[in-house]
């Protein structure tokens, strides 16, 4: 469902097809908010259903790279999670998987320290004599250890956050084009936000939204597991 279709459906559900209550600008702002809210709600509960692939060059002698800097587009996007990382050795087209360790896991191994400690001392005991990656959600930083002395070509598979993006065109799909079977939940959530003065109507929108999210998210996961 694109933004234009969502606007039309939302006006029908709100009983405002004549635009006497909500302006186009107001409804689009509400839809933008609901679009971001519903996308995050789904992927935080099931991050594996929205995994995307992004390529990077990890430059030699680099401490860390900012994963958001090379994704492209005008809106900054961040990784909510990193599922897998692969690197391509020289003179081959075959990628090899790198172990990925969450920084939170390292902190559990080294209780009482803070994020500024030398992680290599701990990690080297886990993955000796091979590259490994360290990632922490929220910072969008990826570290390769040992620090490479040559450029590495990486493929990072993870779940991208939409960020606080606005749908600038009526043809833009909801939820970044992911989860088309859940797009109706965005419309119901927009109705929920728009009717804050009427708790009865608001409750009905909330019920419809949660039913779509619950039933359809479960179906999506089942379908992906069976494919």
Biggest sheet descriptor: 4 strands, antiparallel
- Give the ordered list of helices and strands: HHEEEEEHHEEEHH
- State the domain count: 2
- What is the spatial order of strands in the main beta sheet? 1-8-3-4
How much of the residues is beta strand, in percent? 15-25%
Shape: elongated
Quote the average pLDDT.
78
Helix content: 25-40%
Radius of gyration from CA coordinates = 22 Å
Total number of beta strands: 8
First-residue to last-residue Cα separation: 24 Å
Secondary structural class: alpha+beta
* Structure annotation, total helices: 6
Name the poorly predicted regions. 105-118, 220-227
What is the secondary structure topology, with strand pairs?
Elements: H1 3-14, H2 24-45, E1 51-58, E2 65-66, E3 78-88, E4 96-98, E5 100-102, H3 103-109, H4 120-126, E6 132-136, E7 141-145, E8 152-161, H5 183-194, H6 199-226
Parallel strand pairs: 5-6
Antiparallel strand pairs: 1-8, 2-7, 3-4, 3-8, 6-7
Structure description:
The chain has 227 residues and is of the alpha+beta class. The chain has two domains: 3-46 and 164-226, no CATH class; 48-161, no CATH class. It contains six helices and eight strands; from the N terminus they run ααβββββααβββαα. The strands form two sheets. It has a four-stranded antiparallel β-sheet. Strands 2-7-6-5 form a four-stranded mixed β-sheet. α1 crosses α2 and α2 packs across α5. It is elongated and about 65 Å long.
């Amino acid at each position: 469902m694109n933004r234009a279709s969502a606007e039309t459906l939302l006006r029908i559900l709100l009983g405002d097809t004549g635009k006497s209550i909500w302006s186009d600008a107001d409804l689009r702002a509400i839809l933008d908010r609901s679009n971001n809210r519903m996308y995050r709600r789904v992927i935080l509960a099931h991050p594996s259903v929205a995994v995307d692939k992004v390529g990077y060059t990890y430059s030699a002698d680099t401490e860390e790279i900012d994963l958001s800097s090379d994704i492209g587009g005008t809106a900054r996007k961040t990784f909510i999670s990193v599922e897998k990382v692969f690197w391509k050795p020289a003179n081959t087209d075959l990628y090899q998987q790198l172990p990925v360790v969450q920084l939170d896991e390292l902190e559990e191994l080294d209780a009482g320290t803070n994020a500024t400690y030398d992680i290599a001392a701990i990690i080297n005991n886990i993955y000796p004599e091979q590259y490994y990656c360290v990632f922490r959600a929220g910072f969008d930083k990826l570290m390769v250890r040992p620090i490479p002395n040559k450029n590495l070509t990486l493929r990072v598979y993870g779940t991208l956050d939409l960020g606080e993006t606005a749908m600038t065109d009526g043809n833009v799909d909801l939820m970044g084009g992911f989860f088309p079977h859940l797009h109706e939940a965005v419309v119901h959530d927009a109705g929920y936000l728009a009717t804050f003065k009427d708790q009865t109507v608001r409750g009905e929108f909330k019920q419809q939204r949660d039913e779509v999210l619950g039933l359809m998210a479960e179906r999506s996961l089942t379908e992906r597991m069976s494919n």
